User: Which sequence fits this backbone?
């Protein structure tokens, strides 16, 4: 009897009974990313595996916004007990990109080994956010620094004029 | 001679006018930015004048943080408290911090780091947030008072707690008893799928299913649209129909963010084959076609 039960128990112990992980994002459906035409930004999604006791591998796919969003690679692994695996997502907006906004949707799914049952279940997460686009503002395009530069140039000219005045006054006094 | 003096005087007046036009409150900040590339401080000050003494002013930084799956996160930041009456007038033990989002308040603690000038002190504050705390906007509030004035002053900035979609599911398989073609109301015999929300996502649960492929004859399939899934036991056979290789939102489901240790943060999914299609007798599984996914 014991010989019959033991192999069954060994087989069961090889399987995972839970699947766990998560993705954190600085942007989501109610928290859009604001960018300017011609701008490039890299945002980082945060892959976490804090609960399970096994490393997890996920496959990442861009479902929407492929024309502006790119990934370095499509497979990432997070060691068990970690929360610091970063998935960089680069958003590049062409200068002549016509739309005022674009939705970016990233689907992340665990790479699941077949568990031997009728239906094997894995987990997945969708990160979806809007990229709101606008023309470069004065402050963003250097307008503020341009204004500062003009002020500094005016200041330098004023100082030179003052030095010249002092120089001529002193020269005239010496002659007198 | 007089005309030249007049000219010099005019040039002097002109120069003074130019100087006065370029020198403004933010002028030296602008120069600093040009040469160092660093923006000047954006902290906001608030003060209330009360007769008989000067109150404190408080600088609160604008922050954001990531939740950590199934964990507590310490939000640590520095707040500066000033008092024109001098640092000795600042009541160190009165400095306090909290995060509020309307529904929830998390109180923190602040401790003195040291003096940063003759009128300002720096404090290190720490507030704990849970993994299930909402990603809706939070107000970061720091308050303090002095000995002389005694008025409790507070200042607030925006705090962003990012969204974390995380879950633990079990079991990792779904099974059915042996069914015959044409049979109706065939419920899974090992559901529900228990979904523990280990993040702060608050929303619907989705399932991406795939056709089950025959293990003996892979040309035959048990199509995905034969399956339904729902959050309530007993109604799963009339619940949401699944679609092949498509993320389908399960009607009535919710991720229920909450404290798992206190019995919250959990959801269930139940599955049913309302009517078994006319297919040949063999084992059908996800082995060849790929697993299903429970998704947020």
Assistant:
């Amino acid at each position: 009897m014991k010989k019959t039960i033991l192999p069954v128990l060994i087989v069961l112990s090889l399987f995972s009974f839970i699947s766990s992980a998560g993705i954190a994002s600085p942007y989501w459906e109610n928290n859009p990313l604001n960018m300017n035409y011609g701008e490039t930004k890299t945002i980082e999604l945060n892959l976490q595996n804090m609960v399970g006791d096994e490393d997890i591998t996920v496959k990442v796919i861009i479902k929407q916004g492929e024309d502006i969003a790119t990934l370095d690679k499509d497979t990432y692994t997070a060691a068990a007990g970690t929360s610091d695996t970063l998935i960089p997502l680069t958003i590049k907006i062409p200068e002549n990109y016509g739309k005022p906004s674009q939705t970016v949707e990233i689907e992340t799914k665990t790479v699941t080994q077949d568990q031997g049952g009728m239906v094997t279940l894995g987990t997945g997460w969708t990160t979806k956010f809007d990229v709101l686009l606008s023309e470069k503002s004065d402050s963003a395009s250097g307008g503020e620094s341009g204004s500062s530069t003009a002020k500094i140039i005016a200041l330098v000219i004023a100082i030179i004029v003052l030095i010249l005045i002092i120089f001529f006054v002193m020269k005239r006094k010496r002659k007198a | 001679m007089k005309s030249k003096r007049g000219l010099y005087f005019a040039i002097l007046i002109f120069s003074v006018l130019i100087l006065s036009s370029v020198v403004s409150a933010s002028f030296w900040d602008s120069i600093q930015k040009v040469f160092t590339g660093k923006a000047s401080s954006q902290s906001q000050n608030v003060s209330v004048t009360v007769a008989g003494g000067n109150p404190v002013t408080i600088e609160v930084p604008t922050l954001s943080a990531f939740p950590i799956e199934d964990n507590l996160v310490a939000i640590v930041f520095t707040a500066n408290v000033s008092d024109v009456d001098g640092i000795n007038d600042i009541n160190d033990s009165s400095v306090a911090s909290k995060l509020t989002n309307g529904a929830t308040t998390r109180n923190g603690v602040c401790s003195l780091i040291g003096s940063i000038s003759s009128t300002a002190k720096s404090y290190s504050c720490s507030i704990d947030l849970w993994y299930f705390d909402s990603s809706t906007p939070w107000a970061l509030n720091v308050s303090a008072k002095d000995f002389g004035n005694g008025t409790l002053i507070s200042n607030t900035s925006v705090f962003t707690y990012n969204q974390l979609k995380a879950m633990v599911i079990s079991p990792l398989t779904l099974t059915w008893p042996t069914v015959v073609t044409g049979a109706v109301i065939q419920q899974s015999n090992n559901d529900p799928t228990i979904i523990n929300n280990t993040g702060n996502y608050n929303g619907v649960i989705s399932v991406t299913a795939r056709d089950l492929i025959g293990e003996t004859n892979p040309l035959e399939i048990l199509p995905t649209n034969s399956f339904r899934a729902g959050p309530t036991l007993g109604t799963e056979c009339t619940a949401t129909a699944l679609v092949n290789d498509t993320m389908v939102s399960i009607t009535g489901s919710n991720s229920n963010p909450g404290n798992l240790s206190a019995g919250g943060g959990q959801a269930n999914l139940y599955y049913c084959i309302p009517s078994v299609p006319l297919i040949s007798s063999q084992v059908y599984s996800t082995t060849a076609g790929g697993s299903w996914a429970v998704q947020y």
Summary: Residues 17-134 of chain A form a domain with the Immunoglobulin-like fold (CATH 2.60.40.10). Chain A has two domains: 17-134, 137-176. Strands of chain A lie at 19-25, 33-36, 40-49, 56-64, 69-71, 75-78, 82-92, 101-110, 119-134. Chain A touches chain B through 56 residues (CB under 8 Å).
